[in-house]
Write a structure and sequence with these properties.
Layout lengths: L1 H32 L2 E6 L1 E3 L2 E12 L2 E4 L5 E6 L6 E2 L4 E6 L1 H41 L8 H40 L2 E3 L4 E6 L6 E2 L12 E4 L3 E9 L11 E6 L7 E8 L9 E9 L10 E9 L4 E5 L4 E2 L4 E7 L2 E13 L2 E6 L6 E3 L13 E4 L4
Parallel strand pairs: 1-23
Antiparallel strand pairs: 1-22, 2-17, 3-12, 3-16, 4-11, 5-7, 5-10, 6-9, 7-8, 9-11, 12-15, 13-14, 13-16, 14-15, 17-21, 18-19, 19-20, 20-21
């Protein structure tokens, strides 16, 4: 009995020792392989997405109307909201001093013309006298040589006087023409087809050119409403890859559910240093006049890359105070790879860094996975 008990005790002791060694080996094996990490592949694709960017609708043409001369408003033919055509008379001014200036200019012109006629008559008379003396001088002794010389010099002086009078007449005509042109400025006309969006004067008001004393506001403001500019400040990250002529949709809060469209017509090709955005103008038709200048819009801006770039799950990108990185798993060890983040599309984020297509990265990027740590990689079945 004692021998049997001894054998049984030895067997039990051996069994416990064997199990303990197996548990220790299993724990060691788990420690050597490291924690399990879900990984996914880095993929390459061309970026194609749509961003919502704010835009502002401006008129295609807008101008503040100031008169070119100072005068009193005699009559006004339009008001706020009036539609006008290019060259249409919208206001008539009155400037009595211009009538006096025109009368004075006409008087000076008539005086210059009278002096010109007298000079022409004197030149004609002196030319006849000179020719008569010149013919008589052909006979020796009939006319003294000095008399012929004096007649010639007198004729030259008269001709110079005639030229001066001709210049005086021309100057007087130009002065009168300038007065007539100034009088034409008393008629204020529309510079292009549009709508009067602002009116600041009434008949009897004294108005003048922009910058003149007492002139603070324009008489009218006219804008083109049938053709609009949609100005979009595009961030530098999304400014490349969309050429002129591309159709772009936009919406406005005044028409919920409706989508308007415009065409990229002008690109600044230069970034605003303060906002780091590039102004881009869409050209949109507004035949019915539904859209109003000054309205804010939501522009569906297409973001395109002309070349393929790398993408990882958005959760793979880790951020700390010092760096932005993804955790690459290679040969069973973790490695931090610094990246620069681009656009985000459908839970995938564009990254730029020392990565290649097919690299395995942790689905969940975290600084808890220290560089060089042993890990057990398990590929994400959803990627």
């Amino acid at each position: 009995m004692n021998l049997a008990k001894a054998i049984a005790f030895s067997a039990s002791l051996w069994l416990l020792t064997s199990c303990g060694k197996q548990d220790t080996a299993a724990k060691a094996a788990n420690t050597d392989s490291g924690p399990k990490v879900q990984v996914t592949k880095v993929v390459v694709q061309k970026l194609a997405m749509t961003m919502h960017l704010p835009g502002e609708i401006d008129p295609y043409e807008a101008v503040a109307i100031f008169p070119k001369v100072t005068g009193f408003v005699k009559s006004i033919a339009v008001d706020r909201g009036s539609r006008v055509k290019a060259g249409e008379l919208i206001a008539q001014l009155d400037a009595p001093e211009l009538i006096a200036q025109r009368s004075e200019a006409q008087s000076k012109l008539q005086a210059a013309q009278a002096q010109l006629a007298a000079a022409e008559a004197k030149v004609g008379s002196d030319e006849g006298t000179y020719e008569h003396l010149k013919g008589a001088a052909a006979t020796p002794g009939v006319v003294a040589g000095n008399d012929l010389f004096v007649a010639q010099k007198g004729l030259d002086a008269d001709r110079a006087q005639l030229k001066a009078q001709q210049d005086n007449v021309s100057a007087a005509q130009q002065a009168l023409q300038a007065i007539a042109q100034t009088e034409a400025y008393l008629q204020v006309k529309a510079p292009f087809d549009g709508v009067v969006t602002e009116r600041n004067v009434h008949p009897g008001a004294l108005v003048g050119p922009s910058g003149a004393p007492g002139v603070a506001v324009p008489m009218f403001r006219i804008e083109t409403l049938y053709r609009l500019r949609v100005v979009v400040p595009v961030p530098e990250t999304y400014a490349a890859g969309v050429p002129e002529g591309t159709k772009v949709d936009f919406t406005v809060s005044a028409f919920p559910g409706r989508i308007f469209s415009g065409t990229i017509a002008r690109i600044a090709h230069s970034l605003d240093a303060k906002t780091r955005t590039m102004p881009v103008e869409l050209e949109a038709e507004n035949a019915k006049g539904e859209l109003s200048p000054g309205t804010f819009s939501d522009v569906l801006w297409p973001v395109r890359r002309p070349y393929p770039t790398l993408f990882v799950p958005t959760t793979s990108v880790a951020n700390t105070l010092e760096r932005v990185f993804v955790v690459r798993i290679q040969d069973g060890r973790s490695e931090w790879v610094d990246v620069k983040v681009g656009a985000t599309v459908d839970k995938m984020t564009e990254v730029f860094g020392d990565l290649r297509e097919g690299d395995m990265v942790a689905v969940r990027g975290t600084d808890e996975l220290r560089p060089g740590a042993l890990v057990s990689a398990r590929q994400d079945s959803g990627k």
